Please model this.
Amino acid sequence: MAHFEKASSITEWLDQRLAITTVKKVMALEYWIPKNINFLWAMGMVLAFTFALLTISGIFLLMYYQPNVDTAFDSVNYTIMSEVGFGWLWRHIHGVAASVVFLVIYIHMFTGIYYGSYKKGREMIWLSGMLLFVVFSAEAFSGYMLPWGQMSYWAGMVITNLFEGFSPDIAGGIMNAPGLVEWIRGDYVPGQAFLSRFFMLHVLLLPLVIMGLIGLHFAALRIPHVNNQDGEEFDYQEAAKLYKEGKTKESKVIPFQPVFLSKDVFVLGVYLIFFFYLVFYHFNFAMDPVNFDPADGLKTPAHIYPEWYFLWSYEILRPFPKDPGLIAFGFAQVAFFLLPFLDKSDTVAPANRRGLFKYWFWIMIVDMIVLTVMGKLPPTGIWNHIGLVAAVVFIALFVALPWVTKNENRA
Amino acid sequence: MMKNELKILGVVVVFTAILYWGVEPFAHTQMHKHVDGEHFAYSDLKENTKQGNVENGKTLVMGAGACTGCHGIEAVAHKAPMDAATAVSAYGVNPPDLSTAGGLYSEKFLANLIENPAHALKVEHKFDAAKGKMHPMPAFYGAGGDKAQEIADMVAFLKSIAPKEISPKDAYMDACGRCHANRYGKLDQLGQTPTFKSETDTLKHKVAVLEYQDKLKAYMGKLPPDLSIIIRARSEHFLETFVENPQSQLEGTSMPRVGLSAQGFEKVKAYLTQTGDPSKPAREAIGPWVLLFTLVFTVLAYLWKKSMWKDH
Model:
């Protein structure tokens, strides 16, 4: 057993047992962040905060929500909205945050792509981030089932139908999975078993996985360090030494606490103005009117569409016939994971300083927006054609990426 | 440095705004049929320019007009000849008490309703006299005098007995409540759902409501939906144009035109907001304070950031 001296203060007592001074130093006071950054570098903090809002509001909602097909709808729309003190506020915060968190995720993701922060040692940051994106998507989808409105029911029906697999006549039916859809639903159609298991996923399993992945995501940053606005590679030890000597102007780094944090908190403040404006005055975009009709298995809504953040990948599925559509959809799910390996360039720099990649980046952004809008519009006439072209462009962009980036190395 | 940040913010905001416009306002114009409202003018109906006489109207409504054979008028102490359950068996729908009619419905609509119910209610696709399918409310063929004058008299009488102030809840119950339940407002098709001490009485009432609903289902084709939260499930524009003319939004629906006046609709909407969006007043009261808090927070955060980055 280690030898312990009598401590003269609580800090010392804790320090003897938990080494809190060292932890604080490693995690905050001497956690070095490059100085050459802009507000986009605060998106991680904005995401962490939004996740905290979702967790806290979720806990309050969980106290009154009833995962039962007969009472779920009214427990949300009546009990929480009118009988529970400030229940409406927690619900609006939860609903709006669930939508806005994806906006920030996309900004965070595209920032990484623009500045080349996914390669040359930063692959694990990118991959753990993409895993977070996938689990957040599952979390959002399972949460959307819980109010048991029309859109919960029918989106649940449509999305679980995807697991039917390919048509039985493709490759002797090897890719067809009879019974898989029913196994996932626990019934032939979405019902009590379906609601209960998505409830479990939403409030237990997926949040646990998310928290684990957030830990991994942060840990992945430790060795390669945060990228900076110019993709510049420099000696962190040297920069840290300069900083500690008091040459803060010359040093290329700042400590996480308090310098980086002060900027994070300011950006967070601006974000919160926007966020609470939405919560109080502009929430319909996040709480679809169709879902205020109770689930009815005998009445299909005129338009079934996912929430806005799934629309781009939905539109890569929809314009094609069934089997090619599934392949395209599958490709869309993994495309961004492959980014570090499809990009053959050694350059880490903002896209606008990177030859053809500059065009690739902006075409990809515009294409994602076109896909998202087309994913919501009824798939008829001109919209279907534009959607098909945009889906083909998306696939072509990722297939062409190795050739787009290969030439950068010669320059 | 600052300029660069603002430029980046500009790019983010522009792309976000385009995306928002595409999936919200623009997509909704493409997904829903556009119907122009006429703010309860009922321009398709006949104008009746006659000046009504309340006394003559009373004689007609209580006598030759034969209104009271089916309708109650509690305002003049006339009880409905049948209770709701019997009435719904006889007519398929429970005829409303006429006490508030003159205050809720458009004058023009009432005049046309008396003269030709199926036409004014826009249910001629369901009730075609030529095919022997009569609307349960018979048309008024005149009581021997000038028919247009007699109709104007009856409308004048209904207006004279209508209460000056009709509460949103009463407006809803009279205009919608005989077909649509509102469980968040604790209303069923028989009115305010009572609370009983014994379970037997509770179940008895439930059975009475279910029996009423079965009759209503047979009459309407399906049970009209509960309207507890319809204010959030449909846009305000949809509700207004749908109530004004159900056929414009949902061709072939068996829902009759309600015939509300613009003020009558505002009352009904106020009640639907009470049951469907009860947090609205609290939201509006708290919102500005929360925004003020975030604003102060941001200003303080900015000052902290400035002092921290001064030497960097």
Summary: The two ends of chain A are 61 Å apart (CA to CA). Residues 91 and 153 of chain A are 19 Å apart (CA to CA).
